[in-house]
């Protein structure tokens, strides 16, 4: 290494100095020797200037055999400290004259090599993130001498060896993710010492053997456990049911677990989403506790399992043979005939009753089918006779304008085709009945209420559940408060008309409403379930990890959300206002396509507000079975009442809505444009509005808007304003600046100065359109 060469030169300088002292070098070489000594001293000073933490990190650089992206090229011993190196973060520690390394994050760089034991000498290292590389070999036990470590992310590498039991010696370790590596062997009993561990992910390895009992009861802080896609065998340890701190998913799928499901798993919190698929489990599924709330997806591909919620009946155990008393032949024959006659009479009664019930059900089914067929013919006739040609032509025109270029979901249709598909909403519907918004939704109320439900979120608007129905389809079910007027049609008719208008909205970037339910004390909305969380989590990072969503994906999200909001404003069955747009209301699928949710929720909430009500039997059962169910979205703000939700602090809401002097103001399309501008600023900066550095100025403008405006006015470097992830794209800088101007035009204080959402969407579509 270079610093070793410098030390050799320093030794040579010492020899020259010694020669001068003995007088062995002539005076003619004296001055040249002095210059050489000074140079060697400078090299030695530079060699010794790098802090000890920096020298340790250079050991990691030496352990990397291939660095295709030159991620470590800037790591040099010529620096005083490593705090400016890529991926290194530092903090000042009392008692030290130089900053100490507290974080190392070099992810997704395809580095080849291994994790050196020298990392264990970084005593103040809190976070080690080397995921997405090609690091191999086993983890050295010395790594876990870094006693300040609380997060280790080494997933998506080639790390081999056994599970590092020494990791449990770390007193502050909270996150350990070694998934998708090449670990092998059994889990050690010492795992029970990881008492502070909150998230443990070991999925996608080659771990095997029987999991020892007595581990999980000691891990009192664990909230996430994923052991899927390994080779574990034997029974599931019953003490996993003692993990009462778990939330989210407990994933034991794709292993070789055998035997029955422990009934103790029913003691897990009701919010846990259990996954036991692809094992060799057998026996009847226990119906106790939280196990009774799991859907069939949790138990599929276990050939030996039976019982609810699987459609596999369990065989009744054979009755034990009773001892037959010794009788005379006459007594035996007489008794047998008498018992046979009695048994025959009972069997015939049951058979006849079952046949009668089946006949009545069949007749009822025929009558219902005939009724609905007649209703469908009436609707078709009404459509042919009238119809709103102007409205249809407007949607067709809007579909051509706003349909995304190309397929957003892999073979999907434009909004024109979506608008023509099953456009009518079910015409019937009364209180206490689940009303489907199109013919494609085949779930009835009883099936919905009996399905497993998992809490997705709670807030001022209510609770949102993920519900898995009988065929494995997942939907989102939301509760809209309580009350809603007395009996009769009153508010039910207003509510139903509002929801039906929502149900006619069709766009690739808007969450689809499937059905609704109204009863005096229960209002439910059923929508498509979008699987990949929301924009807020994508921008701010998930599970304690920084966001990795690059600029091209963020731009696509912004464009899709802009098209969806523009469709609500100008191209739907009528002009809607969202009223509460923010990152948490923009959902993402697995391909990061955006879907706007919760549009117009304030109107529906105003229609469900009532001071008193009398529960009906149907709604009471809904509350009991779903567990106090669920909120969603909807409609324009033509209603006169104003929800109390507007009084809550919300930096995404337009200043004219937040201002106390404008307490009577209702959300408008221009206030939606402001909210979209705030969302776009967060996409660009990675900062939520309330946490950006504040400056002096108008109190109504969030700090983020003022900070960005001032930064652009002062011509600050773009790197100071944007999320660093966005600067990695070669085309990103020019496009990011164009998006900043769009966002700032949306966040003008004067509503009249803001553009229409159609214009905003068109400007966003032009950004990056010239890329090849």
UniProtKB/TrEMBL annotation:
Recorded GO CC terms: membrane
Q: Which UniProt keywords apply?
A: Glycoprotein, Leucine-rich repeat, Membrane, Phosphoprotein, Repeat, Signal, Transmembrane, Transmembrane helix
Cell compartment(s), UniProt: Membrane
Major subcellular site = membrane
Report the Gene3D superfamilies cross-referenced here: Phosphorylase Kinase, domain 1, Ribonuclease Inhibitor, Transferase(Phosphotransferase) domain 1
Picking any one GO molecular function of the record gives:
ATP binding
Domain Protein kinase: residue ranges = 450-767
SUPFAM superfamilies referenced in this protein's UniProt entry, alphabetically:
L domain-like, Protein kinase-like (PK-like)
Its membrane topology: Single-pass membrane protein
Chain intervals for the UniProt region annotation (Disordered): 405-429, 752-772
Q: Which Pfam families match?
A: LRR_1, LRR_8, LRRNT_2, Pkinase
Give the similarity note: Belongs to the protein kinase superfamily. Ser/Thr protein kinase family.
Q: What is this protein called?
A: Protein kinase domain-containing protein
Q: Which organism is it from?
A: Zingiber officinale (Ginger)
Q: What is the lineage of its organism?
A: Eukaryota, Viridiplantae, Streptophyta, Embryophyta, Tracheophyta
